[in-house]
Amino acid sequence: MPIHPTAVVDRQAEVDPTADIGPFAIIEGRVRIGPRTRVYPHAFITGWTEIGADCQIHPGAVVGHIPQDLAYSGAETYCRIGNGTIIREGASVHRGTDPGSETVVGERCFIMANAHVAHNCRLGNDVKLVNAALLGGHVHIGHGAFIAGGAGIHQFVRIGDLAMIGGNSSISMDVPPYLTAVRLGYCVGPNSVGLRRAGFTVEQRNEVKRVYHTLYRSALPFHEAVETLAGTVATDAGRHMLEFLRAPSRRGIAGGPKARRVGDHPTDTADAP
After folding, report:
1. How many CB atoms lie within 10 A of CB 232?
2. Which DSSP category does 271 fall into?
3. Residue 112, Cα to own-chain centre: how many angstroms?
4. Which residues of 35-56 are buried (b: 16+ CB within 10 A; e: fewer)?
């Protein structure tokens, strides 16, 4: 698959012979592009960026550009895109800000049109960002998480594995693994569909539900609920949730339906199990 004659490819770039570089694409700087990756017309890839094998970079996508951070001083920073990842039209993935830092997108991720991954974000494998989803700087997204269209994730927030973020949500605190968060960022229950599709056993799914109810539906203060769970979780899923809850957090853990803010729709509790 050739490099189209109208494409602009920097002499410092390393493009695998099996990659396909389309018309008017621009590859600037020490970019590395892996086997069988397709760069569509008018895509822009720059900086110290590594694109894995079997990726797709669609028209108008921007990968590895200067971060939208006034603190960035031009230092060598990185952007790494894992194998099999798809970046659709108009999406942007920026490189890190601090010298030597990086933005990392895992394998088989699907970043849809006009989504944005800011500097120093880390996405696990199989993450999906739907159209116009926005990640602030230093956001961490766990494996298999689903961020629906128009959702905005605040800087330094953690989203756990297989979490589901509803469309147009505003998430300013950490969302634990396997849970669904909506609207102004409150957790309404397990991501039951996602857990079944991922092959979680009935025992694991039931424990996720029990952890959710202990955290958000019991009368226990949150920190006491976490300590209560420490002595009772029995599956890998439960232990992973507990590990997330106990890990350091810059933003704190998202609340449940009782933490709704003024202005939420009165029927929001219907989303809860």
Report:
1. 12
2. G
3. 12
4. ebbbbbebbbbbbbbbbbbbbb
Give 28-48 pLDDT, tens digit per residue.
999 999 999 999 999 999 999
pLDDT, position 257: 82
What's the gap between Cα 68 and its chain centre?
18
pTM (global) more than 0.90: yes
Q: What is the dihedral of CA 240, 241, 242, 245, to 10 degrees?
A: 120
Tell me how many domains the chain contains. Answer: 1
DSSP 43-66: -EE-SEEEE-TT-EE-TT-EEEEP
Q: What is the mean pLDDT of residues 128-152?
A: 98
Distance of CA 264 to CAs 159, 260, 268, Å?
22, 7, 7
In percent, the amount of the chain with pLDDT more than 70 equals 94
Q: What is the CATH number of the domain that holds 104?
A: 2.160.10.10
**Which residue from 81, 87, 26 is spatially nearest to 61, judged by alpha carbons?**
87
Residue that is written with structure tokens 């997330």 in the block: 244
Q: How far apart are CA 160 and CA 254, in angstroms?
A: 12
For 66, the domain range is 1-138
The string of pLDDT tens digits covering residues 216-240 is 999 899 999 999 999 899 999 999 9
Is 208 inside any structural domain? Answer: no
* Residue 101 covered by a domain: yes
